[in-house]
Amino acid sequence: MTVIAADQLKDLVEQVKPWLGSGAVSNYLPELSQARPDDLAVAVDFGEDGVVTAGDRIAKFTLQSVVKVFTLLLALHHRGKDYVFERVGCDQALGSYNSLESFVRTSGVPVNPFVNAGALVIVDMLPGHDPDDRVASVLDFVRALANNPAIGVDLGTARSELMLADQNRALAYYLRGHNFVSTTVEELLWAYCQMCAIEVDVVDLATAGRMLSESTDICVMGEMLDASHLRLVRRLMLSTGMYEASGHYACEVGIPAKCGVSGAMMGVVRHHKGIGIYGPALDASGNSIGGLRLMQLLSKLLDVD
Ligand code: DON
């Protein structure tokens, strides 16, 4: 097994830093616009061989779209594959993550669970008596996978997102109007915004990523998660995790990963390894510039085929 030394990981961060200047931090929420574009942190969890970190390990950030990996896995666990994929597709997105035009294919369902339309449908199908229950179950799930009970929701970011969520609101009205979701629009959005605002650090992401790398059933909160669901989620991360840049990413990097507009990125590497990255400078597709470059270098070092 290849274990990377802390010095090696630090070197990778230094190699990537010059590229950060070509990106910009997300500015659609005040909370996200305060991020520093030259921040870059990474953690790799090697399971029994420990966690190696480089960069600003203690920086905290919100999951944003990375949460869609966890909500999908929970939905698969509670509803099963057939139920989930009758309601969302598993195809590549044609436009941006919150695009109004391209989320419905001719079959009529949102194109995949990682574009916002699909993610809202997934949130609607999570178990719980009300939206707060659903947020609590996602939060507990993330805490368990990351092995960190202190993980919480940044309510300031969630409230900002709710106020500025008109594009997501439009998607939610469309979805409710076509009976894709049964939760009321505002309840659905508030649940989604809180889930996106779950606050983590790179070690949390690396540990959760490592859990998702397992090839057998795993026990989370006393329940067995099916290995076939983990495999399906990894395949979707590789094929659609980077939105319209997914094909290029799959060819160049090959590590199943998911990014968020905060600069969060979680990677899942075979044989019990997980990667967590924070790099808030984003490219035009909304993916972390530092994250993409670090993943590319890590895929060589970790011998991903
Ligand atoms: O729905 C939104 O706009 C955000 N809360 C999440 C979007 C996101 O992270 C897209 N990923 N790059």
From TrEMBL:
Quaternary organization: Homotetramer.
MF (Gene Ontology): glutaminase activity
Family membership: Belongs to the glutaminase family.
Gene: glsA
Entry protein name: Glutaminase
Pfam entry (one): Glutaminase
GO biological process, one term: glutamate biosynthetic process
Keyword field contains Hydrolase: yes
Enzyme Commission code(s) on record: 3.5.1.2
Reaction equation(s) it catalyzes: L-glutamine + H2O = L-glutamate + NH4(+)
Species in which this protein is naturally found: Mycolicibacterium agri
Positions annotated to bind substrate: S65, N116, E161, N168, Y192, Y243, V261
The entry's keywords: Acetylation, Hydrolase
Keyword Signal: no
Source species, domain of life: Bacteria
